[in-house]
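Thread: PH domain-containing protein, structure

OP (GT): Posting the sequence first so everyone is looking at the same thing. Length is 189 residues per the record. Can we get the structure tokens written out before standup tomorrow? I want them in the notebook alongside the other entries.
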Amino acid sequence: MTPVILLAAEKESAEVTDWAARIGWVVGLALFVALVYWLMREGWKWRGTLQGDLPELPTAPDEPGKAKLTMTGRYHGSTTAGHWLDRIVAHGLGTRSRVELTLTDAGLDVVRPGATDFFVPVAALREARLDKGIAGKVLTEGGLLVVTWAHGEKLIDSGFRSDRAAEHTEWVDAINSMITTSTTEGAER
């Protein structure tokens, strides 16, 4: 035999794809992803159950008064005050959403399209500050407006980001001024 024929005889055709094995791997991977998603969802529901002692969220009064400040932006969630990774999920407080904030003499009205609205009475407000993060969201220093408020026996930090971040300082000053005024008036009585 000539060398050319020997070379041609030694070549093998490419291996045929084993479709059954590939489909098995894809189905296995899909089941694994579904299991992980289900476990995350169950963990979220369990966290809500553990926080079941949190009372219902207050709603805005019929006549909240004239708006001192308004803001549109994003609500990034609520955590236990001082623990920026301890997210609160009960009563929808863990759901991120668009937000419309209105500060009045009665308190802070938080309107969230597609999520549960709530109201923080001025007596429940404890502090407002600029921060860089809250559970699941980290921004540059001062990129987040964090409002600390009392609800039931728990202090809560709620994080907001305005569409115009320059507004944050004005909000911090206004809320802290309201808290100081409210505390002073309460002490005089």
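GT: Both are above now. Quick notes for whoever picks this up: The radius of gyration is 27 Å. The longest strand covers residues 67-80.
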